[in-house]
């Protein structure tokens, strides 16, 4: 049996243990409670997304960025005013009447090239166009499968006012396509058809089409033209608009820049519209320059045949002085095979000026200053 004194003493002996346990529980609870309160204070509402930290940029770096934005403006191609497109389509062509069809070549020339004019005054809606566009021709007859021949596109060689200045005709410059196959001479379907048609004949016409070869609106623009053969067609339209006296009277556009034509032909007898070009040259010596490359009659510096790319190299310094002017536009028209030669010549010419043609050409294209139409 325990005495009362021993029981009381034993109970008192357990008091420190109880207090220690109680203190441990209380301390643990307080720590968790404080941690919960701190988390509640720092936690952001779930409805708001965390914003990324912005990089710290010094004032000097910020000024440099702003300067770069100012120094490299975005190059945009200038849009032309609305031009007529597809007034007549293949399913609903206009039947124009042939007014004239004559040879452009002199005695001793190679091949067959004709100037052909069509009357448009009966078209409804009226088939109007601007310089640098093309029209489609649907040759009469059927192909070997009994189907109508497909249309061919031809660059327009007249201004919007036409050769008669009355604004109701359109003219083409057409070379008859001929090539050899299995020992036989093959004639192009549409080109032969056009060279053979006679005044009074009806021809199915579509279009106009094209915005790549349009002249700039600025009167003080410089125009560099690179053409071979019938690639002279759009250039002829440009030059008539610039320098033909009657045409100038009708225009609200008075050319004040410089025009430079590089023309390639196999023989002198194959030079097209030569009399008109010489007249423009005599009447406008400060605004027009004419450089010819006659492959079978002239030699380049290496003793080979003279081609248009050789003339480009000869004039590299003056040519690229013009190209560096933002007002200068370059037009290239003719056989597709002329492009590599021109590109090579431009590369060499650019190097002489310390320029990189592979970088410059896309810039000119983007700015709407490099115009190409080859076939």
From TrEMBL:
Q: Decide whether keyword Transport is in the record.
A: no
- Which residues fall in a compositionally biased region of kind Basic and acidic residues? 44-54, 61-74
A molecular-function term among this protein's GO annotations: ferredoxin-NADP+ reductase activity
Positions contributing to NADP(+) binding:
155, 175, 230, 295-296, 334-335, 373
Q: What class of enzyme is it?
A: oxidoreductase
Instruction: List cofactor names only.
Output: FAD
Return the GO cellular component terms, semicolon-separated.
Answer: phycobilisome; plasma membrane-derived thylakoid membrane
Q: Which reaction does it catalyse?
A: 2 reduced [2Fe-2S]-[ferredoxin] + NADP(+) + H(+) = 2 oxidized [2Fe-2S]-[ferredoxin] + NADPH
Q: How does it sit in the membrane?
A: Peripheral membrane protein
EC number assigned by the record: 1.18.1.2
A Pfam family found in this protein is: FAD_binding_6
Gene3D superfamilies to which the protein is assigned, alphabetical: Nucleotide-binding domain of ferredoxin-NADP reductase (FNR) module (3.40.50.80), Translation factors (2.40.30.10)
Which keywords has UniProt assigned to this entry?
Antenna complex, FAD, Flavoprotein, Membrane, NADP, Oxidoreductase, Phycobilisome, Thylakoid, Transmembrane, Transmembrane helix
The keyword Transcription regulation appears for this protein = no
Q: What subcellular compartments does it reside in?
A: Cellular thylakoid membrane
Q: Where is this region: Disordered?
A: 44-78
Residue ranges constituting the FAD-binding FR-type domain according to the UniProt record: 91-215
CDD domains of this UniProt entry?
CYPOR_like_FNR
- Database matches in InterPro entries: Cbr1-like_FAD-bd_dom, FAD-bd_FR_type, Flavoprot_Pyr_Nucl_cyt_Rdtase, FNR, FNR_nucleotide-bd, FNR_plant_Cyanobacteria, OxRdtase_FAD/NAD-bd, Riboflavin_synthase-like_b-brl
TM helices/strands, residue ranges: 7-26
Q: Which family does it belong to?
A: Belongs to the ferredoxin--NADP reductase type 1 family.
Q: What is this protein called?
A: Ferredoxin--NADP reductase
Give the lineage. Answer: Bacteria, Bacillati, Cyanobacteriota, Cyanophyceae, Synechococcales
